[in-house]
């Protein structure tokens, strides 16, 4: 684990459970300064079109910035490497989990225990992209598109668990993540919300159109990083590379990433399967093609 963030978040979970009250949620309590990290849009990330000012955006949402600590509520901070890590973030990850768990009727003890497991999983040192920031970005998008999901709480639950088991190179991560969710939350009375969440998690393994609007939107939310502006995309690409190369080696990763991921999507000509995200396909194709060139040339990604 990095620093003492996990221990402090675990304490926050215990405090929330013992207080007997749902915490007050705030959408964003982050301090932004001029820097390199793009802000978030309706789709999750700034796209190149938005960076150029051709796409309308909410005036209240920050344009750009580097996440820094806040004296009242420290949020996510960038530590100089490719991973976004938790410092102290009672206003984000922990309360979002706690609020959802209370809504689902999960008792204090299991709610706290599951929360600790989630924090530990997504804050692990080997999570360079599939960590806390990715989960929070998905939760933000689900909140914005809540009316389009058949069961928004199932979507939120799936977001929390969809990468809880993440071992690069394995093909059963989604299956194991869904099984972990079902095992940990077996006592939830609403079995349908568990089943729906597991269905959403399993769909992220293929990222193919299912015909189910909620499933299709969820996988587009998961893939929204592919249409990010290049600085954000390069952090993602470098992060995934750092997750995989310790096990596979550099050359094997480059070859596998190009042949098994980039080439099939580029040949298909599209990433997204919903009308909500389809306008971002062109940006995604540009990013994927650029990544392929960098990997093929033996280069690395510029990450601030």
What does the main sheet amount to? 2 strands, antiparallel
Number of domains: 2
As a whole number of angstroms, the C-alpha radius of gyration is: 19 Å
Low-pLDDT stretches: 1-43, 48-90
Describe the structure.
- By secondary structure, the chain is mainly alpha-helical.
- It has two domains: 5-224, no CATH class; 225-296, no CATH class.
- It is built from twelve helices and four strands; from the N terminus they run H-E-H-E-E-E-H-H-H-H-H-H-H-H-H-H.
- The protein has a two-stranded antiparallel sheet with strand order 1-2. It has a two-stranded antiparallel ribbon with strand order 3-4.
- Helix 5 packs antiparallel against helix 6.
- The chain starts with a helix and ends in an 8-residue tail after the last helix.
- The model is unreliable at 1-43 and 48-90 (pLDDT under 50).
Reconstruct the topology from this structure.
Elements: H1 5-19, E1 31-38, H2 48-51, E2 64-68, E3 77-78, E4 84-85, H3 93-103, H4 108-122, H5 132-144, H6 152-161, H7 173-184, H8 191-203, H9 213-223, H10 230-248, H11 250-268, H12 281-296
Antiparallel strand pairs: 1-2, 3-4
Helix pairs in contact: 1-4, 3-4, 5-6, 6-8, 7-8, 10-11, 11-12
Name the descriptors.
2 domains; mainly alpha; two-stranded antiparallel sheet; 304 residues; disordered N terminus
Tell me briefly what this model is:
This protein has helices at residues 5-19, 48-51, 93-103, 108-122, 132-144, 152-161, 173-184, 191-203, 213-223, 230-248, 250-268, 281-296, and strands at residues 31-38, 64-68, 77-78, 84-85.
